[in-house]
Amino acid sequence: MKHVTHGSQSAAAKDTRFHRGISLYAWGQQRQHFRKPPKDQHVIEGSVAIIKCEVGNQAGRVQWAKDGFVLGFNRSIPGYPRYEMIGDGIGGEHHLRIHNATLTDDADYQCQVGPADGHPPIRGTGHLTVLMAPTTVELLGRGREDVIEVREGEEVTLECKVEEAKPVAKVKWYKNEQEIHLDSRDDVTEESPKRRRHNLLSKITLRLTPADDGSHYSCHAHHPALNAPMRASVKISVQYPPGPPVITGYTAGEAIRAGEERTLTCRSRGGNPLGRVVWYRNNENIDSTDRAVGAESVNEYKFIVDSSDNGAVYTCEVRNKLTDKPLLASVKLDVQFPPDKVMVSGPARSRVDENVTLTCFVDNSNPPAEVSWVVDSKPRPETSTRRERAGPGGWRTVSELSLTVPPIERDMMFTCHATNQALGETKLDTYMLSVLRPPQPPTLHGYSGGVGIRVGTQQRITCISRGANPPADLQWYRNGQKIPSQKHRIEDMSSAEIEIVAEPQDNGAQYRCEAHNSAASTPVSVSTTLVVHFPPESVKIIENPQRLRAGKQASLTCEAGPSNPPATITWLREGYQMPGRVMDTSLTPNGGTRVTNVLTLNLTAADDGLTYTCQAANTALRKDVRQSITLRVNYAPTFLTDPPDVVDVVVGESEVLNLTARANPGPVLYTWTRHGLPLPDPVIDDSWRHAHDPDISGGAGPSLVAADGPLLYIRSVKVDDAGVYELEATNQEGATVAKVSLNVQYPPTIKYTSEVVTVAEGQDARLECAADGNPLTEEMMRWTRENYDFTRTEQTFGGKKASLTVLRSNKNDTGVFSCVVNNGIGKVATTNVTLVVKTRPQVEHSQLLNRAAAEVGRTGRLRCLAEGAPEVSFSWKRDGVLLSNGVRPDKYENETLKTGLVSWASTFSIKNVLESDYGYYLCVAENDLGASTVSVHFTRPTRPDPPLALKVLNTTHDSVTLAWVPGFDGGKPQYFRLRYRSKSSSSYQYLDVYEFGVYTYTVTGLSLDTEYYFSIMSYNDVGESEYRGEFVRATTRSEAPPTPVPSSNVGKEASKLPGLWVVIIVLVATALLALNVSAIVCIVRRRRNKRASPPTKKTPPPSISASAMPKAMSLTPTQEGSDQASSKSTTNTMYAPSSYNDTVVGETLSSISEKSRESYTQEDSVVDYEATSQYSVPVGHISPCLVHSGHFVPGQVFLYDQYDLLYGCEQTHKHAASTYLIDQIEPPPEYASQTPSQPSSAAYDPQEDDYAEVLRRNAYNHQLGKVTPRPPSRATHYSTSPETRGYLSFSYTPSPTDVPNGAAQYHAGGPSVTLGIHDHGHGYPADIGSMGLEGNDHSHALQSLGLDSDPPPSLGLEQHSIPSEHPSLTLDPHSITIDHPVIAVTDFSNRNGDLRVQPTSLSTFNPNPSPSTFSDSDLEGHLV
Fold it and tell me: Is 771 helix (H, G, I), strand (E, B) or coil?
């Protein structure tokens, strides 16, 4: 290769010398030469090579020669299809291009320019070297990505062979992608069997260490023909033994407790392969479950330590295939554990003073247990102790205790305590030594000495002896005589029980019990004496004197029979105890006591007829004997009830006072007087007797006072009737007098109050209120004021006058105080007193007032609010110039209103706003005490500010009520849009609040027990605000309210209807049914005729008389409607019946808001139509049409048949606010804007002949509560209203984009709506005449709808496109709502009748939803 290169350089030198000679030859003239002579270059095999040759001032012909072989002058170079000359030959460009270069193209190439016209020939040579990339790179004897396993310290030789490269490739060695340079490298180049190619063999020798484990060694072949080097690599795996094991989890010499959980961990680091880690316990394999953790092998052995682990050796063994013997590590455990068991042994029984020895065995404890003795709860030192080894690694302890049995009356208890001091744990055993002993003195149970027992009762007495060993024998005696008993023994306790039936002779008897056993020399005993209680047998009462009189003294004597204990005598008068005294007591032979007691009486009238009882009671037995006597006492009259000192009577009311007296003997005479004069004669009719009973007396009569015996009648009492009334009652024993004061009470009245109290700030304000009334106390007069703190006030009362002093008054005290007087009689008296505290004006600063807006040419209004006293005046300035001084009344106007007690408002109007009027205005509020200012920014209308303070007012199971505060409206009417979603959903639902001035809304149709997120924004004609309140959350209730059960009283009340009414109702219902059937038949015939004949354009008849008009169909809603309903936020729409039959009546109409998704019942959603026509029927029924004097009656609903004739009309008092749509009655063909579409699959087949059968079936299904099929869908819909005298038709082209079901689509760009305005004069009878209604220009009505043109002069259908983005148009998936003025034709005789615009009305049309988008409720009828 070098030889070829040198040859090329020699040829070039010759060419140079040749050219130099030619140049001498051609001296003096311009000769041909090389602008770019050929140069040496390289090309990769298979690529394109271009050898450039450019000749300047070319004269001769040009050809190329390859290794001296000329290729010819032809630029396509025949015979060499891959060769060609390229470039601008005329310009001297003769480049040689070689396609798909191969090894044969590796040669010298000479560009030769022949002589011509005195120009000598020239030649230029360049060598083309064809580069050939190596075909393979491999590590000899190694596979691709092979793994070489070697042992630590071994040598490995890697040989990299790169074959068939031209020129020879270069090799680089890498370790883990880092180039390495080794002294051991040896490269050998050799010829390849293929011509002109070379192989390279590069060899390196490595001595490997553990650090080389996992390394990658690779050789990279670099060559100019390669875009990236070729490579071959191997992975080195150096095998070496693992590291020594290391044990953690226990430290040598550490003491651990038995029962403790312990984990021993053995780790061995390194090793290839990783070592296997195995645990042994006392040379027994216990765990081989090791695992690899990084570069370590780990085996964790977890166990519960027990006593057998004491002294156990745990060994960790590690090995791999390179270890000759395993690597070991071990630990020996020191386990501390308490004794396994403690046992005491010794004799079973012993006598007093005998010597006994007890032994305590403590088995297996580490460290050895410490033994202590406790004898009868007292420590006792042991006699001897020894320790010895026990098995595994524990200690056994034996302790002996010797002692002499002391004199004791119970068994001895020995306790041995064995304590492991290191662990602080103790185990013990208890041993009982039985000691022989005599019985203790017996005790008696069931009876206590000296305690009496009731005669005739059973008494059990038990004798018990304890402490004897063996148990004692017991014996009972009565007064020294043995008596039987029931005996029992339990351990050292003996018992004997006797049963006695108490008798009087047992009183004082002695009972004794003796106890003895073999250990006792003499018996021991116990005794008791019985006490028996018995009551007296009889009592006797003696009365003295025999005749009793009030005011005199008498005595009653009571004698009681024998009793133990002595009887207690008690005197009772009518059940109430009286004091007596004991006169005598004496003993009786049976041990009882006789008692005598005397009761002394000072007689009064109250004693007459009273019963006195002597009760002799044995208190121990709670038993008594009684004897009673009734007294007969003479006395003067005594009133049955104590006469009241004062009788309260409310003025105007009636009262009866009864002061009846009793006396012995009778009768009693009564005399009533007032001021010493007798009252009128006794009453002679019953009207007086019942004066206190308005139901009997017939109400209050004239004020009179009269007496009837003990009764005092007071009727319609007056204040003058107050005073003292006196009654005298007499009999033969004497007279009694009573005095009663009549107090007449009357309701309160306020006689005087302070007027407006005005004080300076900081001064005390005094408010006064004087009143009259009976009664009237301080508690009955009070001062009130809502939400006012009275702590800084003082209230005083005196002389029926209440005063309120407000201390150190300030502006917050300004307000109205109420003086309230209430004595519980009549109405509460209330009078207001106003307190005004003088303050300088305070102007209100708020977002709503600090800005104002209006369009150019309009009137701008700036508002300013202030509080202050006295009167506040306002002035307006701009840039220091006063504008509200009346200088330019044509431009500025300032109106001031008093809006509250100290509240004032100013409205500053800027008329005919100009661009220069925008800016800042200063409002100045001032009075005698000072002034306050605020700046108001006046701008063009802007989008509104977001609403403020969105909050939740209430939640139910399916609704949430929200409230908010509106922000600045931007100078335009603003409306609100609510956005909400459930917590689990990411998509929002939207609700518009269309009603102006409404700031609360209820979102309905929500799910049970679901959390919702709410936010709100506002918008006006200019734009929309951002949403606020995303973090307002509410959760619906988890349970729905119970469904109310219909009352059963309806049926009961119906059953009470008179028979005549039942007959009338049946007749009327029958007539209505017949009328319905006839209408249905008529409709069916017309439809059949229409289907049978092709549609043709019909010309309406010139005139039809009223008598010739067919019957019309009237829609008569029967419930109150939207004009009386509560405010709604969106369009109220209605369901129309699916056919003209009785499937829908007035009761079934409901009002549904598609926008708000609220559902309103019939009670507040439908206008109440009071039909005056005798033919008025509910919705869906047929009535004759009434035409009065050629005019349509206001309040009519008109429907058309296919011949443009009126189908019905009806007069109503009130106008419907919503539009009724009946799809079954088709409009005139010339009114149709589209060909009706085919019915959806949910509707009935339009080809069905039996149309009446479909209507009948719909009515039957409705009665069964089933869903009625929806009527045929129409592409065009029609609306008529009583106000319009015409109707609207809409055709709707859906948007090509799908709208999610239930989601609102606002101002969609895709849909379009066509509006048709229909004149009822077209096709009407000529004699109907002019309606004579006044109206505005019809163009204004069309412009308000956003229509693009005026109606043409011809009547009939006028179509106008409404832009979908028009603000009056609202679209959603189910309906189209147009907010438009009501358009009415005022002159039917004139084909160019005027249009009248009434207040805004709403028309909603169903745009033919597909069956997949409407819900079950949509199937009830078209939503209109």
Answer: strand
Backbone dihedral region of 949: left (phi > 0), alpha (psi from -120 to 50 degrees) or beta? Answer: left
Q: Residue 1117's pLDDT is what?
A: 34
How many helices and strands, by DSSP H and E, does the chain display? Answer: 7, 103
DSSP characters for 926-995?
EETTEEEEEEEEEES--PPPPPEEEEEEEE-SS-EEEEEE----TTS--EEEEEEEETT----EEEEE-S
Closest of 368, 428, 419, 379 to residue 401, by C-alpha? 379
Q: How far is CA 733 from CA 549, 550, 664, in A?
A: 10, 9, 8
Which of 338-365 are b and which e, b meaning 16 or more Cβ less than 10 Å from the residue's Cβ?
Answer: bbeebebebeeebeeeeebebbbbbbbb
Pairing of strands 425-435, 349-350: parallel
| Beta pairing partners, 364 | none
Residues 1405 and 1424 sit within 8 Å (Cβ to Cβ):
yes
What is the structure's pLDDT at 816?
A: 94
1292-1327 pLDDT tens trace: 334 333 333 333 333 333 333 444 444 433 333 333
Buried/exposed code over 753-774 (b: 16+ C-beta within 10 A; e: otherwise): bbeebebebeeebebbbbbebb
The residue type of 597 is N
What sign does the CA torsion over 1140, 1143, 1149, 1154 have? negative
Q: Give the dihedral sign, CA 787/793/797/798.
A: negative
Distances 333 to 264, 305, 492, 826, 1365 between C-alpha atoms, Å:
11, 10, 54, 101, 91
Q: What is the 3-state secondary structure (H, E, C) of 401-463?
A: EEEECCCCCCCEEEEEEEEECCCCEEEEEEEEEEECECCCCCEEECCCCCCEEECCCEEEEEE
H or E stretch including 248? strand 246-248
Percent of the chain with pLDDT over 70: 71
C-alpha to C-alpha distance for 265 and 990, rounded to whole angstroms: 66
Are 1113 and 1140 in contact, with CB atoms under 8 Å apart?
A: yes
Tokens of 1313: 């709506």
| Cα separation, 518 vs 820, whole angstroms | 101
Rounded Cα–Cα distance for residues 545 and 633 (Å)? 12
**Roughly how many angstroms between the first and final C-alpha of the chain, as a whole number?**
99
Give the amino acid at 152.
Answer: E
Q: Which residues contact 538 (CB under 8 A, 6 or more apart)?
A: 560, 561, 625
Which 3 state secondary structure label does DSSP give 779? helix
Tens of pLDDT, residues 870-885: 999 999 999 999 998 7
Dihedral angle computed from the Cα positions of residues 141, 143, 145 and 149, in that order, rounded to the nearest 10 degrees: -50
- Of 134, 152, 125, nearest in space to 44 by CA: 134
* pLDDT above 90: residue 836: yes
Looking at per-residue pLDDT, the higher value among 295 and 1303 belongs to 295
Are the CB atoms for 1138 and 1144 separated by under 8 Å? yes
Copy the structure tokens of residue 653.
């009311």
